[in-house]
Design brief:
Strand order of the largest sheet: 1-3-2-4-6-5-10-11-9-7-8
Number of strands: 11
Bound molecules: glutamine
Structural class: alpha/beta
Number of helices: 17
Shape: globular
Low-confidence stretches: none
């Protein structure tokens, strides 16, 4: 084979596995070698991969005989997952001290589906603590470095999953996206990331951050890979009451459809905010022009409530997080403080020692907006504004098939360029949050380079359960604009 094993796309690897020219363990060995070489020789290791378990893969493979495996959708192809997704026996601490040493007692449905289609999982990956962050700075395992330039952040909170794909340390990965955590790091690392429609992928077995926003989704080297991976993980699950029973279409079958007559909405507010820099506007405008030439109709629209997305998210997500994370109390999971003398003290000490600063900040905000005196003023108000954003979005999608916007407003930040305050970091999600507030699917695709050669990406947001159209539109662009970072 001319390409090195770690350079294959997921789709190419599956074909080679089906043809029998390689086997899953060889693929895993090639990736492990790459991960270990970087760790051993690099001054600033990427630090994406935390746990590797080749034995687990042998067990996963034993469930199939050779013929079954070759006839399966995935033919044994290995990927890695974010460290907040359960797989029996794998450590699942969400990069938090409070869960250190905790191992999964069961497997998430998204992962079980992947394994059921003949896939294998060999590793799990670094992330911001409990998926709160945009730079993968907030992990007890330390900063993840952007493989394209180690002085820069890989984005967050799925910094590990995005960096691993970008560095060819995994063929593809699964991340989670509550406010942008798949798309924003994918954009920083020059790879493709999709947040599925809320309800498309089961949340069962994914450590909850903000349950009305969370979705698991694929981070991949290409749009076609992404379509294949979503196919494998999506579907109804009776253990997640918010999962949908709408059938999962064959996403790979419609990638090449013509774009003639497709209406692409351009929401003015995403292009006119103060935050977005000219270099990014120019890159995304070139994407618009490409689509126009490909026969799409470009339609300017307005989503006036856009500016409220960020504040609404930063009320609702911490509120949900403060209740979800209440279970980490030193009694049931993970770490327990040995300093406590009373039960109350046990909760207090365990959480004081076990949770990091950003997570604590969310616990305080969440508790505050839910407290008796402030519930109406903040939480309830934010729910109402969320509904307004939702209505506005879905109204726009009656006349547009998709919306096209930048993924991030500014360039990939440097690691040592500190955010002046937490809100400045929150701003990097200004364009990704709408999809979580509305439940819509959204994909981020690279479309250029900034002045230091780091990626610029655009985002397509679609109608609920219409990932097929996003993949089609994204694939046609990608095919005509190959980029090497
Ligand atoms: N960066 C956002 C936050 O910190 C989004 C996180 C996510 O999507 N998990 O909340």
């Amino acid at each position: 084979m001319s390409k090195e094993l770690t350079q294959l796309t997921l789709t190419e690897a599956v074909s080679a596995l089906k043809a029998g020219t390689i086997n899953p363990l060889e693929l895993i060995d090639a990736h492990i070698k790459r991960i270990e070489t970087d760790k051993a020789t690099s001054a600033k290791p990427i630090n994406a991969t935390l746990h590797i378990d080749k034995e687990a893969v042998r067990t996963q493979l034993k469930r199939f005989d050779q013929t079954e495996l070759k006839n399966s959708l995935l033919a044994g192809v290995p990927i890695a997952i974010k460290r907040n997704i359960n797989l029996t026996g794998f450590p699942v601490d969400c990069s938090s001290k409070i869960l250190q040493g905790y191992k999964s007692a069961y497997t998430a449905t998204a992962v079980a589906n992947y394994l059921g289609h003949g896939g294998t999982i060999f590793a799990n990956l670094n992330m911001d603590e409990f998926a709160m962050g945009s730079a993968n700075k907030y992990s007890i395992y330390g900063q993840v470095h952007n493989p394209l330039n180690r002085a820069y952040i890989p984005g967050g909170s799925s910094g590990g999953p995005a960096a691993a794909v970008s560095a060819n340390e995994a063929l593809a990965t699964l991340g989670s996206d509550t406010g942008g955590s798949i798309r924003q790091p994918a954009a920083c690392c020059g790879v493709v990331g999709l947040k599925p429609t809320y309800g498309r992928v089961s949340r069962y077995g994914v450590v909850a951050f903000a349950s009305s926003f969370d979705q698991v989704g694929p981070i991949t080297k290409s749009v076609a890979d992404n379509a294949l991976l979503l196919q494998a993980i999506a579907g109804h699950d009776e253990r997640d009451s918010t999962s949908s029973n709408i059938p999962v279409p064959n996403y790979s079958a419609t990638l090449e459809n013509s774009l003639k007559g497709i209406t692409i909405g351009i929401p003015r507010e995403y292009y006119k905010t103060a935050e977005v820099i000219p270099e990014i506007l120019a890159a995304v405008t070139r994407v618009q022009n490409f689509y126009k030439e490909a026969g799409a109709i470009i339609k300017e629209i307005s989503l006036p409530a856009t500016e409220y997305g960020l504040p609404v998210y930063y009320v609702l997500a911490p509120a949900e997080a403060s209740t979800n994370l209440a279970r980490f109390d030193g009694i049931r999971y993970g770490r327990r403080s040995d300093k406590a003398k009373t039960l109350h003290d046990l909760f207090f000490q365990t959480r004081s020692e076990g949770l990091g600063a950003e997570v604590k900040r969310r616990m305080f905000t969440g508790g505050y907006v839910l407290s008796a005196g402030y519930y109406d003023a903040y939480y309830l108000k934010a729910l109402k504004v969320r509904r307004r954003i939702y209505n506005e979005y879905h109204e726009a999608l009656r006349t547009c098939d998709v919306l096209l916007v930048p993924t991030m407003p500014y360039r990939v930040p440097k690691i040592d360029e500190p955010y002046e305050n937490p809100v400045q970091m929150y701003l990097s999600d200004v364009f990704t949050i709408a999809a979580n507030l509305t439940g819509a699917p959204a994909i981020s695709v690279p479309c250029g380079k900034d002045e230091v050669g780091l990626p610029i990406s655009f985002q397509l947001m679609g109608r609920p359960f219409d990932e097929a159209t996003l993949y089609n539109i994204a694939h046609v662009y990608e095919k005509n604009h190959p980029i090497n970072f």
